[in-house]
Amino acid sequence: MYHPSASVARQTAGSATGVLDSRSGSWSDSRNDSRGPDSEAFLFQRCTWCGTAMYHRLLCPVCQGSDLRTEPSAGTGTVRHSTVVHRNTPAARNVSLIEMAEGFVVRGRVIGPPIGIHSGDRVRLSTAKDPVRGEPVFQLVDEPYRAWS
User: Fold this and answer.
1) Is 4 in a helix, a strand, or coil?
2) Burial of residue 34 (number of CB atoms within 10 Å: 0-12, 13-18, 19+)
3) How wide is the angle at C-alpha 6 spanned by C-alphas 4 and 9, nearest 5°?
4) Is the CA virtual torsion 88, 89, 92, 93 positive or negative?
5) How far apart are CA 149 and CA 146, in angstroms?
6) Nearest Cα to 115, choosing from 94, 141, 140, 134?
7) What is the pTM of this model?
C-alpha cells in the first residue's frame, strides 16, 4: 500500500483549501451585479478538460480531472426540489436543490414560507453563506403565481 509523505499531503490540502475558499479572491465582473460591491462572491469550479461546472469538488465528476478553475456565478437559478424540514430547528425551514444558470446544482435555503416554494420557481442569490448553517441563501425572483386547482 502506498502512503504519501506528510509534506505532500499537507501541500495538497493547502492548495485545495485555497480553491474552495470563497474569500480567497476578489472578482471584478463586467456584468451588472445587483448584489453590491461589498457582498461575497458565489464561486463554483469548472473543469478545464471537459468544461463541466460543479460546486465544491476536488475532482471532476465526469472525467476525474483535478485541473479545476474557479469562476464567479451570476447567482440566478431554478428550484429543482424543495422539502420542509422540522427536525433540529425551532420552526420549519426549507431545504432546496437549486440548479444554477451555469449548470451545477447546489443545496441551499430559499427565503419565504416553506410551503410556498415549488419546483420550477426562479431564484436569485441573497447571501453566499448563511452564518449559522454555512449554506447559500436564495430569494424568489418572481412572486409565485399558483392557479386555483
Assistant:
1) coil
2) exposed
3) 70
4) negative
5) 8
6) 94
7) 0.65
